[in-house]
Protein 1
Amino acid sequence: MINIKIDGKTLKVKEGTTILNAALQAGIYIPNLCYDRRLKPFGACRLCIVEIAGQKKLLPSCSTPATEGMEIRTETPDVIKARTTVLELLLIHHPLDCPVCDKAGECTLQDLVFKYGASSNRFEAKRKSEPERLDAPIVEYNPNRCVLCGKCVRICLDHQGVGAISFIDKGIKTTISPAFHEPLDCEFCGQCIDICPVGALGSKHYRHSSRTWYMDEKMIICPFCGCGCSTNLSIREGKIIRARGIEGIGINKGDLCSRGRYGFDYIASENRLKNPLIRKDGELVPASWDEAIKTVAKRLQEIKDKYGAFSIGAIGSQRCTLEDNFMLQRFMREVIRSDNLDSASRFGYAKAQTAFEWAFGLESLPIKWNSPLEADYILVMESDITSTMPVWGLNFIMAKNNGATLIVADSRETKLARNSTNHLKIKPSTGLAFLGSLAYVIYEEGLY
Ligand code: SF4
Ligand code: SF4
Ligand code: SF4
Ligand code: FES
């Protein structure tokens, strides 16, 4: 640990911590546009500059490691002057069209311009005036608002392991695009939209559907897979209009996959069953909840009277909450007085759980959310984790990017296989033989 001072506050931080990370850990905000906790420093925006005692130049805090005894000041007159100049330069091209921009109200550039008052400009140049790109199914891009911070490019390649977009062209023409200006064709996770600090990347579903300050925000747990990502829903007049991750919140700490981000439209779908239906004379007829509940209660009573309580059973669902399933078992045991209870999960993970208990004698999986971030070698056998648990799957890509060797033995070209150090393309269903051979070599060569 080393000792540093930021704005007069004494801090103890791990050696190698950047000044920006040290400040954020201590709750001190340093303006930034191209920094993100999940990405390596990029040094593109120069807004995070700070003054360091004994240094002639202002230095970018996102890429400067703190050293023992360092004294840092984040808001001196020189720092403010330099930041205001950077903002002026950005505003040569940025249109500040906040009245028609979906990002207004939660835009870092808007906040910084407001804070540093850089809306007038000493520089003159022909303003960028490129058409919006609306040719992709979900993601839209406004090149005029883009501040070229590169966060979208880096989250897509380094964190998502996709690499669908990059910087294209040069100078004033520089833009973000798939290769050869092709339409975007990717996994549409939407991570680039969330990470964009301005309104350059947006979601077509959400486009012009509400000003940010008119929406109610509600945090839920995404129901689509076992990751259990915290998802922030924005609701306008009772309708969900967007879902996003919030930096640092939940087990996912802000990451979301395409299912969690876009899989909510069925809730307001016209095709969704919204009323109970009761079969009358062979036809399903819409009914009120009151009528439906009375009908079910009457039929259950009739069956119980005629055949006994044990002729009635119930199957809970793994899609329901724990509380829902708990109420179902209480209803069955205390009202119906039957123990005939089962769960739909018996057909899925319960079998895997039993096999695991049988093989290793453990009742719960010893896998932690942070695995395998600290591992040096990772072997993935015939498993498409980035598809079954997309956000947890990102850990494998991060571990590989941090230097781990990732070996994927799979007959398929999975996303993890594409991001692996070695893809062992075994024949389908030969995983057991592969593991047996591996065990044989380990045993024969005394590698255990
Ligand atoms: S990106 Fe931000 S600053 Fe730019 S127009 Fe949109 S809200 Fe305004
Ligand atoms: S939506 Fe996801 S995969 Fe597509 S470009 Fe953005 S970050 Fe990359
Ligand atoms: S689109 Fe957004 S995230 Fe990507 S470079 Fe431009 S401003 Fe940065
Ligand atoms: S955040 Fe440091 S240069 Fe952009």
Protein 2
Amino acid sequence: MIPRKNILSFFCSSHFYSKFFRYYSTYPSSFFKINSKFDSDQIYDFRSDTVTKPTDEMFDIMRNASRNDDVLDEDESTNELETYMAELTGHEAALFVPSGTMTNQIAIRAHLSTPPHSVLCDFRSHICNYEAGGIAYHSQASVTPLKPSNKLFLTCSEIESELIVTDDIHYAPTRVISLENTLNGLLFPIDEIHKISKLAKKSNIKLHLDGARLWNACAETNSSLQTFTKNFDSVSLCLSKSIGAPIGSVLVGNKEFIKTAKHLRKLFGGGWRQCGLLAAAAKFAIASNFPDNLKKSHLLTKKLSNELFNLGIHITLPVHTNMIFIDTKSINITTGELANRLALHNILIFGNNSTTTRLVLHYQIPPISIEKFIDVVANIIKEKKN
Ligand SMILES: Cc1ncc(COP(=O)(O)O)c(C=O)c1O
């Protein structure tokens, strides 16, 4: 078995993250030099909500999961999760898939048939920036990335004015509109989603939602998943982000769509065999964390954001759920220096030579770490003044 410390070192290393997140860049490798004797149980990891660790209770649940072959459709725990997710989202069927990237890419591929065709989305969205160019590779589609003029979410009228619905052979018609909720932690207003859904139906365009963090949107707005999911032809929901499961995403849609998706999952190499233990862990994570633990982490996020703002740090996007985007220029420190100082207190953030970064909270970030975080920043500011 790899020692825990080595696993952590790998995931914190710049090697792992450097190419991954263009805008939040690398975590300084100095952490492990500075902090050679840390206890991994006391690490407060603000880099992402993907970092939550499976709990002992989760392992107990995994031990009792079914152990059959899902490619042969024989695994009870997997079928149970899929039925549960279909019911929760008000869709006919669901498919358990290894990653959020795979659910999104399968969904887009399943909605599209023959090129030329295109997918319209927010220019910041995961599907067009962080899925390794998957839309071009898997679906031979071009992307129409739009910049929302309100800087928060795309409006129906913005989308309508950019749809490609002409027969002119110079263009690739829009066949899919893909939204993301939350996006950078921002809530997509439900009224706007209703309008976009109507527009998509009227225009005979499929509407997909990257709902990797739809759980957060629902927890924050006290809404059921169905409030959002019923407006879409397909929705991808991640289980390995703030909901806290170790691995997996679920794609929902109608029966025919999920049948195609299942075929494509196999083609993508994502047909998994004895995955019941992961499905059981995911169902347990949903029951344990949604919505209350997410709500708590949103409250802590707002607390941290308010305190940082009061200390003079610029908060560059509104804080709706579990993410804070900061600019440390005003306190004259790079995010790399801040990361190194926080690392001395077992707090992990992404940092580099720039002054902007993203902080992400999740249910394994306790209130005590917020106090520590604030203390470190307050001390740095005090030192700079002296
Ligand atoms: C909004 C969004 N969608 C999709 C994904 C992809 O998920 P995965 O890392 O499981 O491929 C991510 C990952 O961070 C994400 O933030």
Protein 3
Amino acid sequence: MISPYIYYALVGAFCATWALRARRRSNLLPPGPKPLPLIGNILDMPREKEWFTFAEWAMEWGKLVSVNVLGQTMIIVNSVDVGLELMANRSGNYSERPDIPMAELATYTESMTGAIQYGTYTFFRHRTHIHKAVGTPAAVRQYEEALELEVGLFLGEVMRKPEQLHAHIKHMVGSSIMRIAYGHESQQNDPLIRLANIVMEEFSLALAPGTYLANMIPALTHVPAWFPGAQFKKTAQKWAKNTRRMQDEPFEVVREQMRQNTAQPSFTSRLLTRNPNPSPQEEEAMKSAASSLFGGGSDTSSSSIHAFVLAMLLFPDVQRKAQAELDAVVGPDRLPTFADRKDLPYIDAMVLEILRWHPVVPMGVVHRAKEDDMYEGYLIPKGAILLPNAWFMLNNPDTYPEPRKFDPERFIATETHKPAPDPTDSCFGFGRRRCPGRLLANSSIFIACARILASFNIEKAKRDGKVVEPVIEQTTGIISHILPFECSITPRSAQAARLINEFSS
Ligand code: HEM
């Protein structure tokens, strides 16, 4: 029998070797705020709008910053080059998402592209279907007419009820996606859009790190739903039911319309035309890919268009320049269309500046390292979570001088000026998980900006003859929205009002 002294000596040696190895490994991690024993950097972590604190850390520690939260290593990526090297060039190692128990319970990990695990059948089918539908300039061109139509209708709503501008933007974007996904013509207060918005709110609650204990203690997911305190399981079941409805209802409508030859061309009708009798697994992938278009595209694009309105309010010279370009190229007798885009370099550059000035996904969407990796002498351990700091990449004064100034000209080449780096290299994420809707997003923002500026003047509101300064606040969370602010939005002329009426009736 082994002597207890030898036993203790062996255990002691094992623990010391393990501790030494752990210390050596932690010495190899990228720099960052000093962690405390056990809890790590939890006290350093900002509670909200973390991108502002992370930007300060980027200035202090550089391209890669590491923190440890309750044992979980997080690596904040602060430069586009590093983001591309890790998440694009080495994408085989960095395309997974971390496990989020509430997302799994609510079935989002089987249905929402952004939450589905890399490497699964559903993931590849989603990416293939979405790429075919909106992943190339030619594919997006199919939807230009629908986008022009939706923005035309939106202009009429804004003219009639300007005080509801923010709601009109949200409706216009949601409505465009429903038309693209299902050929669905939406109504005011449309039940389908309402359901989709509810599912999106539930989805973001499921992903919020601190809201549900089950996200921090995954073992809780094994507790039965009837167990006291397991209310979160019932909540997740309700969310799963809503997601099911959001996928099934519009899909079945399109299938029925196709039987009756009344379906409008759409993402779903094209999938069903190519494959009218899909296997159950493929049908699930088709349905969930269609509903993921709304998930990925509605809150993001509407947040960009809100930011555009705010920028016009705060930078009236930019507004005037853009309107002068529209007047010279399009004139007062019609609304701008996609065919004008090649002749509108200022508006084109404005789209890039909107994506830079207000990064709507300021901390990107997290990726997870599959295996240990080294980058420039730093260890990125297996299981580490990568947070692409898009806000800093797009507001780094070394890349974009005076970053809080809204200046489309930074993207226009002149004889003396090289255009600034393209924000679409970072604001849409990286590698095999990069946003598959980025071209559609770009087109939606372009046509909304061009048509809004051709039709309206956007100014600070006035009350009792006095200018009301807008209160500018943005929300925290994966998608950051600018909160509604007061402004005056009025037709530029009687002719503009006539055109709006013509296009929206
Ligand atoms: C301003 C508009 C938009 C922005 C800023 C944006 C940004 C992003 C970002 C940062 C990601 C995560 C990429 C990564 O993990 O590295 C993403 C993913 C995604 N986006 Fe977008 N997006 C926008 C519009 C759209 C639109 C219009 C659609 C579709 C119609 C869309 C569909 C998706 C989908 C399905 C994913 C999940 C991809 C995956 O996990 O593999 N997005 N987007």
